[in-house]
User: What shape does this take?
Amino acid sequence: MATHIVQCSRCGTQLDLSAFAIGQTVACPCGHQFAVPPPAVGTAQPAQPPPPPGQPWQRPPQGPSPRIPPVSPPMPYVAQRRRPCREANHALTYAIISIFCLQIILGPVAIVKANEAQRKMAADPSLDGSGKATAAKIIGIITTILVWCV
Ligand SMILES: [Zn+2]
Assistant: This one.
């Protein structure tokens, strides 16, 4: 049986309406209700066979507009493989150690490493760890300032 994929006109979610009759009112998970449109040209099926029993999202007997699970989870962004930035991890490690000891050395080292990490991440968008680099920089600056104030 051919699948009948329809895009919700409100949220754009692709819904599998194969088991629903044309013209039947269905509800998208976003709440948008609409009538099942006829299949696109090429996959046209004049008479929709009744859905086989036992399908998890089959229309309940008394439900006025069943909720259809999306075909696939919504993907707001293109999944991208991101590599953690090693420098960012190093910078954060130095920064955390600098809180406890060797502030005068490790504080500036953390700042330098964090700057290095931020440069690398700016040059290579697939690197992940800008949060760590920022945290390392802030901690490094704080420990460096504190050590001069004490
Ligand atoms: Zn929707």
Notes: Strands lie at 5-7, 14-16, 25-27, 33-35, 83-84, 127-128. Residues 118 and 131 are 10 Å apart (CA to CA). The helical segments are 86-100, 103-123, 130-149.
